[in-house]
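If you are new to this repository, start here. Below is one unmodified record pulled from the training split, so you can see the exact layout before writing a loader.
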Amino acid sequence: MSTRLATKGRLINDARALHFTFNGKQMRGFEGDTLASALLANDQMMVGRSFKYHRPRGVVASGAEEPNGLVNMGEGGTFEPNQRVTTTELFDGLKADSQNHWPSLEFDVGTINTHLSRFLPAGFYYKMFMYPRSFWKHVYEPFIRQSAGLGQAPKDRDVDTYEHFYAFTDVLVIGGGVAGLQAAKAAALSGAKVLLLEQTAHLGGRAPVDGGQVEDMPVDKFVEQTVVELETMPNVTLRTRCMGAGVYDHGYVLGYEQLRDHDPSAAGPRHRLWRIRARQIVTATGAIERPLSFAGNDIPGVMLASAVRDYAVNYGVSIGDRTVVVTNNDDAYLTAIALKNAGLVVPVVVDARVQGGGELMEQAKALGIRVETGKAIAKVKGGKRVTGVALCTQAGEGAVLEEIECDAVAMSGGWSPVVHLWSHCGGKLVWDADAAHFRPDVDNPPTGADGKAFVTAAGAANGALHLATVLGDAHAAGKEAAQAAGFKPRSASAPMATGPECAPMLPVWLMPQGASIKLRTKAWLDYQNDVKVSDVQLAAQEGFESVEHAKRYTTLGMATDQGKLSNINGLATLATALNANIPAVGTTTFRPPYTPISMASIAGEARGEVFQPIRKTPMSDWHHEHGADWEPVGAWRRPYAYVRGEETVHDAVMREINQTRASLGLLDASTLGKIIVKGPDAGRFLDMLYTNMMSTLKPGKCRYGLMCSENGFLIDDGVVARINDDTFLCHTTTGGAESIHGHMEEWLQTEWWDWKVYTANVTEQYAQVAVVGPNARKMLEKLGGMDLSAEALPFMGWADGKIGEFDARVYRISFSGELSFEIAVPASQGRAFWEAMLDAGREFDLMPYGTEALHIMRAEKGFIMIGDETDGTVIPQDLGLDWAISKKKDDYLGKRAQQRSHMADPERWKLVGLETVDGSVLPDGAYAVGEGVNENGQRNMIGRVTSTYHSPTLNRGIAMGLVHHGPDRMGEVIDFPKVDGTVVQAKIVDPVFYDQEGTKQNV
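And here is the target side for that same chain:
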């Protein structure tokens, strides 16, 4: 049985006991325990059930590579599924429940799948769930949905908080083992700013457990000394409990810091997502021990040899009283020696190598440990825990030579460098046949925009598996990174380390090598997804020769494991089945994050009310105080209308329009996008973005422009003002400011990266007010300041000056068809300017108006609205805007797309005005029907309504719409059926309903 040793362990504080529950059972651990070590100390060998066959599963590893120990943790607002027991630090009151079983962990009805395993091989679902087709909806799909997934989805709102943090550094070191510490020190001595991330709570990695001498001192003392040195350096930052989650282009790295998972009662955010920019990155992420594939290697109590050693040395936990060690390399002898020194029994070390091991094997023998070379485990005996093993020869087919009673098996199949982060950004791998693992290919590293490497692997992550070579490699990596970051490294040499001489390892992909099908169907590669050796062989037999196809056919390395334990063994099994070399088979794709990170940390503070903060103009409080009926426009809230007294919203809109057309209205237009485009190539850039010419625009003038996607569809419109020779101010729609700015940056950064252009979104830097109506100029002249006469400021011009006491930029543009001035002032002066306008406009009965009045007045004037007249399928030519498409320039975004046959088709629907025969208002989005029916027996559609309103100016319903051959059908009456079965008739008219000559806006 597993229990706590009297030595307690080097990381344990036995003065502080912690109490926790597992499946409702009260248990006890100590400060410094992980949940895994505490469970094992309480003899809780079984921690869950496998996904497919519901086989008993116990802890296999001691770190982030653990595939089995996933539990539901917490309750209510702190509940979280799939928490890994090996990386969860124990705290008082922790509540954990095992997953993937019913009704209980000990008795799970799902185990019937084990007895049906011969009918449920790899890929069975691809064959079984296809027929009969009628079963899919009512039988197969409900069954799959019920069975899918690990753990339970949280139901309550998360009560914790999360945050993002931004950091910039010269050298980022990921991994805080001896390699990471040495690389950080070597880089820091050059003067470079160094940030080191370590995913666990302790620095030093495996070295203090495995032992060794560095500079004539024990390696754990060397670690302590190095940490103290780094902590005293002002240019070094060390962060524990912080994982390097992913490496991306341009030295961008995501870090994931767990601030108080170990102490939930502490104040502050739970997780922090680091967004890091580094000139150079060193991946010192270590290596992961591989399991061996033999029958019964999934029974609880079969663990990685390094994990057994970790639990004994770090936490004072024995996995069993009698532990059989099975290996193909020397490292596992460290486990046998550690267990023997702890007073435990090691009945035998089973070494697959005929010649055996090196110095460590001799040390084990000197301690009285039996060593059997050239042998293998034929099978492990037991069900819910190990009871014994059967030995055989590795070169044979599994004939049992001897059975040995034991309650634990420590296995070691060699070590694989953690190459995930190296691979995230394009780093290539090379197969090391001597060590039987993939390691970074130093000749093909991840490269930046300059073609130079920006990631360096160090230590075990680079394939160096012995203490002396680890330190030497890490020292060189730190100096190399510092030099690449622009610093001069010191000439100091790497620390000298000593360790035992090791014999070569023997690649062992199946134990024994000639195992029968009976044994192969019980030899597991992927513990979490129940993938066996025989499953991968079946995939190869059925033609899935690509490693990516085999992965998906068998589910090898999917889910939270992501191939950490199963990858190399699975690839080797596939290569053997295909009679190919492992490098020829290749690897699966390593994708970030390295281990799962919380969804909440990705969101950070963006949740609840601040998920998408409501954006407010400087005048929003005034609007609220004066009866604004609000309308959401993107992330903004804009006044739809200003309701007075008992009037309805409709009445308020009618009043606002009548007053503006008759005298004077005021609109808060601050939400319109304002993007500065500046640089020697600014005009050239805007010529490509807009359908018409912007480079010919004179300073002091404005021009209306249309913007299309590369597919030719209209995405935005607005007025562009030229500020000076190399500066433009582009106005966009309210909802389009961010997306259009992103659109600009995308093209600048990916296609026209060498153009000298800078863009800035300054939407919120200015308050903008539209003064509209026949008395607009009179009111502004009353305030005094700049000359606003038609001669000084003609239509589609702009000028800087003063309006009263306010510094202002005045645009002579109109979206209503009336005399109009749009005035921009600094945002800090927005409300004061607004109130000054209201005071000055009293004699003209000045009245603020909202977005609905704006929309109706623009429709009366025949102006289009993005999002109304456009829906992602409309091009400028559909809207009669051919005049806004330049015929003088060779290209613009969307031009070639608009020349495609479908876009140039004369049958496309075109924009027209619509007047109802009875004066009523057409339903928004209503379709016009024509003669005949289509192939589905439905009435043929010949058009649709894009905008529809009641016009108080014309005292009737007006609409704009897209109609088949619309401009050629002026005066024709067409039918618009309503959902109640009635039909509204409308006459096709010119879309400009009001002031077709444009005399009012040119006053």
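Two things worth knowing about this chain: The first helix runs from residue 35 to 41. The chain has 26 helices and 52 strands.
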